[in-house]
Structure formats: C-alpha cells, structure tokens
C-alpha cells in the first residue's frame, strides 16, 4: 500500500526518433500509468477505467483517458502532482487537422485550465511559435 498525500511525478519526453512518444494518446497513457504506479488511489481509478472497457478488450477513447486523468488529479487527499512534458517541440507539427503537436498543446492548455490546486505542469521546448503562445510557462533552451 502506498501512502496517501505524497507527491507524484509523471514525465513525458517527446523523442523525435520514437513515434510512439509523439502523440496525445501516448502521452495520456504514459501519464496515467506513471501516476497509477505511485498511488493506490490513482491505481484504483485506472482499474475502474480498465473494467469499464471490458477488462481492456475495448480501447478507451481519448476523452475517456482524459476523464481518467482528471479523476486522478482531483482525488481527495491526493498530494502534489508534477507533470513534466519535455521537448514538446519534438512532437510533429505535420499536416493534418489537428497536428500531433496541436493535440499535445491542447492537452497542456486543458491541464492549465483544470484549476487543480495540487497540479504543477512544466513544459520545455525550443522557441516554436505554437509553444510560445501558451498560457503556461514554457522553458526554452
């Protein structure tokens, strides 16, 4: 059993060499997995989603993944949560509506607007036009 109230950290690095680490769904899945590994309560939220999707035989929608994350972020007695999204500029800004980068930036914006008092989000990027206009702090190198 993991103690409640301790800080949790979830990290995602957008590696341009690994397409599985460049999209919205992959980031959300990774964040959910990391948070559930650090908290019994978060693990319970993920298990609930798993059972609602026929024990994993049905793939959850992106909305269901987002709902699951929000449930984790708003758990009672949840300690501070730190989400680090590193090298967001490595996420492709390719053709398509919306692009993978736009989807990830939408996630960042959604997190920043969530008003979760226990949540801190750090985003790093090279100075890219799409990333610099964000409401959250973007650390550039």
Describe the protein in words.
With 141 residues, the protein is an alpha/beta fold. The protein has one domain (8-140). It has helices spanning 24-38, 40-52, 62-73, 100-112, 129-132; strands at residues 8-13, 81-86, 119-125, 138-140. A four-stranded parallel β-sheet has the order 1-2-3-4. α2 (40-52) packs antiparallel against α3 (62-73).
Structural class, judged by helices and strands?
A: alpha/beta
- Give the beta-strand count: 4
- Domain module count: 1
Distance between the termini: 40 Å
Overall mean pLDDT: 83
Radius of gyration: 15 Å
Question: Major sheet: order of its strands?
Answer: 1-2-3-4
Percent in helix: 40-55%
Tell me the overall shape. globular
Beta-strand proportion: 15-25%
Low-pLDDT stretches: 135-141
**Secondary-structure element pattern, one letter each:** EHHHEHEHE
Largest sheet: 4 strands, parallel
Care to give the gist of this entry?
The protein has 141 residues and is an alpha/beta fold. It has helices at residues 24-38, 40-52, 62-73, 100-112, 129-132, and strands at residues 8-13, 81-86, 119-125, 138-140.
